Amino acid sequence: MKIDYIDKIINRIIKECETRDPYEIAKQNGIFVIEEDLGEVYGYYNSFKRRKFIHINSTLEQEKKNVTACHELGHSLCHPLEKTPALTKMNLVSELKIEKEANYFATKLIVDDRHKEQNMETVYSVLDFYGLPTSFERYL
Ligand SMILES: [Zn+2]
Question: What is the pTM of this model?
Answer without folding.
Answer: 0.95
